[in-house]
Design a protein that fits this description.
By secondary structure, the chain is of the alpha/beta class. The protein contains eight helices and nine strands. Strands 5-6-7-3-8-9 form a six-stranded mixed beta sheet, with helices on both faces. Helix 5 links the parallel strand 6 and strand 7. The radius of gyration is 18 Å and the shape is globular. The mean pLDDT is 92.
Length: 257
């Protein structure tokens, strides 16, 4: 994998401010560069604007001030999004749910049938194409959501605490699988989490944010090479990185208090 310092930038956020009605300042002077190939986690206390950053990047809302620049001119059309909840259509099969990004672009199902099968195979659900969401466990529903986000092979995938509601065993398994999926489609990931442990296991860059107003106060690198497995979770290196991230998060919480 290309070292972080040698990766070309994918997008930049320059002096971003986002103010909501009632003069609530969600972000102020938010500066961030996302490089091609990053697994970047946004870590911080509730209310620090992590999800707002994702909404701005995905063009679901616009900054009050500042600029988001996509290098090469490609923007929100070339990304996938995974929300906190799977947000599946209950009346549609698993395959039809994964087809949704193509459907919104006017692409026929027949022409992308193989892409849908490949995406479901990557998340281990190739035998559940005809199942409905009500027939799936919480972890399986999230796998469908991830398959839907990656089926078009986007340059960037945004993930907003996708595993927060899952039990720890399922969460660990999906963390492992996510790293394999990222490698398989060679994309960039921005991952929002409250978990220091999750951010260290998944990321090579951790951006720590403080609240009121939301902004970056620390950036940490996790230089352990991929692939990462369960032995990394019990290593001294992992413990050192989690300690550094915990200290940075503690500072962010203190700043926000």
């Amino acid at each position: 994998m290309t070292p972080i310092a040698q990766r070309p930038p994918l997008l930049t956020m320059s002096h971003i401010e986002k103010t909501f009605s009632g003069d609530v300042v969600a972000l102020k002077d938010m500066n961030l560069t996302v490089n091609e190939g990053d697994f970047l986690s946004l870590l911080g206390p509730s209310g620090c604007g992590k999800s707002t950053v994702l909404r701005l990047i995905s063009d679901l809302m616009h900054p009050t001030r500042g600029k988001i620049n996509w290098v090469g001119g490609q923007g929100s059309d070339d990304l996938g999004v995974v929300f906190q909840e799977p947000t599946l259509m209950p009346w549609a099969t698993v395959a039809q749910n994964v087809f949704l990004p193509f459907r919104l672009k006017g692409v026929s199902y027949a022409s992308v049938r193989d892409d849908i099968f490949e995406a479901l195979k990557l998340v281990g659900l190739e035998n559940f194409q005809a199942a409905y969401p009500r027939e799936l466990s919480g972890g399986m529903k999230m796998r469908v959501s991830i398959a839907r986000a990656m089926v078009t092979k986007p340059r960037l995938i945004l993930m907003d605490e996708p595993f927060a509601a899952l039990d720890e065993i399922t969460r660990f398994k999906l963390n492992n699988d996510l790293l394999e999926l990222k490698a398989a489609i060679d994309c960039t990931v921005i991952f929002v989490t409250h978990s220091v442990f999750e951010s260290v296991f998944l990321s090579d860059r951790i951006v720590v944010m403080a609240a009121r107003p939301g902004r970056v106060i620390h950036e940490l690198e996790v230089d352990t090479p991929y692939p990462r497995h369960e032995d990394f979770r019990t290593s001294a290196e992992y413990a050192a990185h989690t300690r550094a991230a915990s200290e940075a998060l503690g500072e962010a919480i203190g700043v926000a208090a």
